[in-house]
Amino acid sequence: MKKSWKVTASAMMTVLLLAGCGSNSGASNGSTNAETGGKGSEKTVTLKMFIGLPRFKDQFDQYIDKFVAKEKAEKNIDVKVQLEMPNSDNASQILKTRLASNDAPDIFSIHAINEIPSFYKAGYLEDLTSQPFVGKLLDSVKPSVTIDNKVVAVPLESVSWGYLYNKKIFSDLKLTPPTTLSEMKTLVETLKKNNITPFELAYKESWIPQLFLPLSVGAQIQTGNKDFIERMNKNEGSFAEMKSMFDIIDLVNANGTNKALEVGGDDGAAAFANGKAAMWVQGPWYAETIQKANPDIDFGVAPLPLSDNPDQTLINLGASTSLVVSPTSKNKDVALDFINFVLDDKESSGFYESLKFNPVATIHNYKSYPWVDDATVYVKEGKAYRDPSIPQAVKDEVGKGLQSYFSKQLSQDDVIKALDKAWKDYNKVNK
Questions:
Q1: Taking a C-beta distance cutoff of 8 angstroms, is the pair 203, 259 a contact?
Q2: Right CATH number for 9-157+320-343 from 3.40.50.1100, 3.40.720.10, 3.40.190.10, 3.40.1280.10?
Q3: Is the pLDDT of residue 297 over 80?
Q4: Which helix (H) or strand (E) segment is 165 a member of?
Q5: Using one digit for the tens of pLDDT, what is the confidence trace for 283-296?
Q6: Is residue 15 pLDDT above 50, yes or no?
């Protein structure tokens, strides 16, 4: 039985004001159902897609065009695609409002680790276990899109991350990625003595400062506080246990670029790409944007030190943005065709390579990127953990909380109280 999220009037207004609709392949705002065309058995189908990756619109447009051509050639189905790509800060709320209003897109993106459990429990995910693409998934990736022994999504982003660093700057100063917080403090001072800003700060979009949360929680769970998530789900824990995360947050904030709350992700990527800072607490999902700003940049990925315990300096492993199918789709057959086309034997490698995403399937045959190889070294040494399953509502709250903390409107204790409340509120809705 489906469970709906509560929808406020302001959330509905958000949909009206912020849902940036685009279209591909002659999409029209008309029919959303399969219709009988005028030529024999030809059908016209309008497929609605909701994917919160607006910086990759060109790549998705091109890939969708290939899918449309394939459906026409092989099944004589004329597919019209309505593609909506809101930004990351708004996508989750807009999507939940749609679902609660019985206006589900045929295909939509969610965060595999954070959102699959609640979306699955609410009845919003089609079981994809029997689909052909499932047999192509890498063993290391498949668990991230599996729940109750059912595969419910096709993963796009499978990432190994911590922070990004400018390899040329590090090489010129004979620096290596630090393994402890004290070493990071020493490295920061070395950079400053050489008139180099240590960290890029781009906090205009709240999802960026929230990245500190999975890095901190994941590493601390791995190295001792193993039942933290379980206890938080029972209202038996508190983020006070994670308060040490402010040690690295404070170090970064005190040694970063100016006007952080005015700089968004794209501008942050451009600044980092052009050497405005030596490091950025960000994932390699921004690789395409960084390289577009500076094709010659040489950057790497390293684990972020949290304390003087080197065992806590670990790479985060997980799958984030993934595509799912709505069980209520009136064009489910075509939606499933597209989901399988995402891992098409012929076209998928070029698509993932153009996005600069990690391989997620056995059919992906493109050469891995240098930053992927950097992270893989740590993973092979056992210096990694699986991305912790933190509710999206809590991540949204920490993003806003850390923006306010940066501007000195909230204290550390205020942020902790807000996070505890957000998790308890989540538990109330998702019992």
A1: no
A2: 3.40.190.10
A3: yes
A4: strand 163-166
A5: 998 998 999 999 99
A6: no
